């Protein structure tokens, strides 16, 4: 959904947009200003009222049940890839995302609702500013402010973003392993299953059921920033990076980089060179 310097986002006051098929692969942020609504998400019904924020990471799993005549909402939808690239792969961000997959509604105080509305409208007001030389960075910075505020509001409502049952314990343990930097050298699902003393199938099924994402998605979520950091270091050759990160070969490393960054390691490095 990105084209050159342009980043496609949608700002709306239409409640029904939260279940639009257009937003597959996007993240939807909603703030309820008045009235009440009810929607189904991942097979469960959720009600919203004034000052409730909603973060939906799988819009294709949403359907609207009902809404009051006086329902007023403001919605900001943005591509998941763009938002993910703004954040470091920190433990709270991923853990909070898992919790939001389970319950996407965050009740806010009047003050926190005001802050979030300001964050969202700041983004809305700059969406048309495509002539800005740093448009992508500008929107990224504004989006990052909104996301960190949402993390803060969510943390205030949840002493822990993980429950105590076995499935979520496995999720938490996987994230802890990834948070320790293991994916620098280990990127096979079988490695993490062995570390957690569970089968590959159990780990894969549990992560998918609890988060809506695959184990590989989270491994890559931690690995790609490491790759970028290494490629940004001109003192390391591509061969050295591939070896340091335990890739089977330089060609395999090149395929991995191309898949996730859209360009080969060589072209990525060329893009870093100042124009003469």
Describe this structure as you would to a colleague:
It contains eleven helices and ten strands. It is α+β, with helices and mostly antiparallel strands. It folds into two domains: 2-157, Jelly Rolls, CATH 2.60.120; 184-272, Homeodomain-like (Arc Repressor Mutant, subunit A, Orthogonal Bundle), CATH 1.10.10. The strands form three sheets. The protein has a five-stranded antiparallel β-sheet. Mean pLDDT is 87; it is low at 160-164.
CATH architecture of the largest domain: Sandwich
Helix content: 40-55%
Shape: globular
Strand content: 15-25%
Overall mean confidence score, pLDDT: 87
Q: Based on helices, strands and strand pairing, what is the structural class?
A: alpha+beta
> Counting H and I runs of at least 4 residues, what is the number of helices?
11
Overall tally of domains: 2
**The CATH topology of the largest domain is what?**
Jelly Rolls
CATH classification, class level of the largest domain: Mainly Beta
State the end-to-end distance. Answer: 31 Å
Number of strands: 10
The main sheet orders its strands as 3-9-4-7-10
Q: Major β-sheet, in short? A: 5 strands, antiparallel
Secondary-structure element pattern, one letter each: EEEEEEEEEHHEHHHHHHHHH
Give the oligomeric state of the chains in this entry, treating copies of one chain as homo and distinct chains as hetero: single chain
Rounded to an integer, what's the Rg over CA atoms? 20 Å
Residue stretches low in confidence (pLDDT < 50, at least 5 long) are: 160-164
């Amino acid at each position: 959904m990105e084209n050159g310097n342009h980043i496609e986002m949608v700002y709306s006051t239409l409640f029904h947009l939260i279940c639009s098929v257009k937003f597959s692969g996007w993240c939807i942020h909603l703030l309820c200003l008045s009235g009440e609504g009810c929607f189904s998400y991942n097979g469960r019904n959720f009600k919203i009222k004034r000052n409730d924020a909603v973060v939906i990471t799988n819009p294709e799993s949403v359907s609207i049940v009902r809404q009051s005549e006086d329902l007023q909402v403001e919605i900001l939808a943005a591509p998941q890839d763009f938002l993910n690239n703004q954040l470091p792969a920190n433990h709270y961000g991923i853990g909070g995302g898992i919790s939001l997959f389970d319950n996407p509604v965050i009740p806010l105080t009047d003050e926190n609702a005001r802050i979030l509305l300001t964050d969202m409208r700041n983004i809305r007001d700059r969406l048309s500013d495509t002539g800005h030389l740093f448009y992508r960075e500008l929107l990224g910075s504004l989006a990052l402010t909104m996301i960190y505020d949402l993390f803060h509001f969510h943390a205030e409502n949840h002493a822990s973003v993980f429950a105590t049952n076995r499935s979520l314990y496995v999720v938490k343990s996987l994230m802890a392993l990834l948070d320790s930097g293991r994916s620098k050298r280990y990127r096979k699902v079988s490695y993490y299953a062995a570390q957690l003393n569970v089968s590959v199938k159990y780990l894969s099924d549990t992560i998918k059921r609890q988060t809506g994402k695959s184990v590989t998605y989270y491994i890559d979520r931690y690995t790609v920033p490491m790759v970028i950091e290494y490629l940004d270091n001109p003192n390391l050759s591509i061969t050295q990076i591939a070896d340091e990160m335990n890739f089977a070969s330089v060609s395999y490393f090149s395929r991995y980089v191309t898949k996730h960054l859209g360009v080969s390691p060589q072209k990525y490095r060329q893009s870093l060179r100042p124009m003469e």
